[in-house]
Amino acid sequence: MGKVSVIMPVFNSATTLHNSVLSVLSQSYPDFELLIVDDGSDDNSYELALSLAEQDKRIRCFRLPCNSGAAVARNKAIAMVSGRFIAFLDADDLWLPDKLEKQVEFMLSNHAPISFSSYYKIDGEDNNIGFVGVPERVSYQDLLKTCYIGCLTAMYDTHHFGKVLMPEVRKRQDYALWLTLLKHTDYAYGISQPLAKYRIHKGSVSYNKFSAARHTWRVYRECEKLPVPVAAYYFTHYALRGVLRKYAPAFARLTGVMH
């Protein structure tokens, strides 16, 4: 069907790395390689990755000489992949066991060059704290308004795009990549079934809404080169959707009580 190359950047992730790797090794779809790139960790993440690689020949480990950011780590791996499909998983997130099987089958059946899925949110103790659904498809313009694509669920087909690297910015580089890919196809296609678990923790970009907003603006201006009025238009959509996502559930509960 097509080999999948899984990209996993690692930085001081010794406490979560094993479970994240195990969620890849436990996939029902066996035709994959896992490229782990240690981004200058100062804990024992790299040694742990090496020990895991000794147990499964599908794992390949690399190490950057100093901390350079997730984009640099991911790009090092992308340059060396051998699979048709490229997927991403951070070292603190998890995949459900049929993630690769479901997604590869979906992409081949629907001739989808890039896909993504719904996912669960979990806390530091693996407790389920939320759910993120996705639309059936999104265009470049749709994605400028809000990033529907969770990096841990994304997969793109190199037969369509070739190997496309992430812009080497410190944050939101995955968002910038999806925008780049969507300039070369009509849509990214969403899978409604949740296929992954995204860990929320203090310090993550998604946790710090102000930081996420600032880096989103930088993607508009520095990566996409949008003029200020155009960037402001899409940023307004991004901000309003963020407010709605935060307060709509509470509003729905309130109106339900009132009725």
Automatic annotation (TrEMBL):
<dbReference type="InterPro" id="IPR001173">
    <property type="entry name" value="Glyco_trans_2-like"/>
</dbReference>
<feature type="domain" description="Glycosyltransferase 2-like">
    <location>
        <begin position="5"/>
        <end position="131"/>
    </location>
</feature>
<dbReference type="Pfam" id="PF00535">
    <property type="entry name" value="Glycos_transf_2"/>
</dbReference>
<dbReference type="InterPro" id="IPR029044">
    <property type="entry name" value="Nucleotide-diphossugar_trans"/>
</dbReference>
<protein>
    <submittedName>
        <fullName>Glycosyl transferase</fullName>
    </submittedName>
</protein>
<dbReference type="GO" id="GO:0016758">
    <property type="term" value="F:hexosyltransferase activity"/>
</dbReference>
<keyword id="KW-0808">Transferase</keyword>
